[in-house]
Specification:
72% helix, Rhopdopsin 7-helix transmembrane proteins, elongated, 2 domains, transmembrane, Homeodomain-like_sf, single chain, sequence-specific DNA binding, Arc Repressor Mutant, subunit A, mainly alpha, membrane, HTH_AraC
Amino acid sequence: MLAQVYFKPVRTEHILTAIFCGSLAMVALQVLTTASGSTAAYVFALGTCATCNVIWLIARALFRGANALSAKHYLLAASIAGLVIVNRSAELLISVEWLNSREIAWLTGSVSEITRLLSSTILALAFWEPLRGFSTAGNTAKRQRFLFASIFFVGVFSCTVITEGLLTEAARQQIRPWLVVISALAIVITTFIILLAQHKQRQNNAQPVKRPASLSEDDLLLARQIEHLMEYEKLYLNHELKTIDIANALNVSEYKVGRVIRSLSNAANVNQFINRYRIAHAKQLLTAQECQHWTILVISLECGFASLAPFNRAFKASEGCTPNQYRQQKIPQAQV
């Protein structure tokens, strides 16, 4: 958790990872104190409300880039945390004999079932995040996605299917706590490795840009940040992307963003600059074997265009042919 201090500037995924690590520490303390029958175990259990729900948020932030999280995602995660807290609070009050377990059995049973259902769904979504968009990701991003998905699957599979389906009750009590600890540690280390790799990539940031004498060092830094938003966080996939969105993401003025883009990219305007990334992405999808069944409309939407007509116009202006013609020209070469 303290390792998150290393990252400057602090991003959403860094904060979420620190919360996740803190909640895992509560899980470990709960496991260690449960055998003694201490009330402390129930107190520590209250802090275990930020595990599966927060790792889902982390996965979205890691693999979807900018604007990956909105109020509805935080609300869902908070709802699961609330259910866990309600259930753990009831267990605590029962343990100190402030509540009768029989009188609230209907409540604890209902909350437990809802929590189990939502937690299972969230775990599935967390596993899906690195797989989503895997085929069109770069080589570095693919390795990160594969690493996260593999470790996550092995960890969850070990703590659920193996412990519940293959072990006896006696063996389960002995082995499950260790499997939980090892799996949680593996997921934390994997997450930190990916965070570190992405942090390094943001620092090194893409290819060097041309440096007109009229631009200052601040402008060149801004240019690298804009390139990162496009190349790594794929902001161009948002069909409503405008200059103000880029400016807000970097906390600078629209005028400065527009001036830097026009100076360094030779684009007539910001929209043309954004469309260059969209068309480059479209060219990858048009020739990808796994996307051959996709229509041109689907590809246009996947690349960030709002509809087919603007996509066709921008593509033809850039490549001198329509997307369909480009696909017909390139597919035979890709299959050789």
